[in-house]
# Entry
Amino acid sequence: MTRNYYTTGNYKPDHSTCGSVIYNYDFDGYVSMTSMAERIISDWKFDEQCRKNAENRDKNKNYKKGTN
# Structure
């Protein structure tokens, strides 16, 4: 019997987003949709702030090197 092997290349995780934290009470069924939405929006804002910080960090590196 012939075996087929598939390769997908190297996996490179994306560290540009936080991902969020899962709490035990997320699974108890008593979490309101409002609190879940607030946590999701908070995580999105955190990710956006991290993205802006990374852009500024890269701009500063290029500025110090003398490239624009």
Q: What stands out?
A: The helical segments are 33-65.
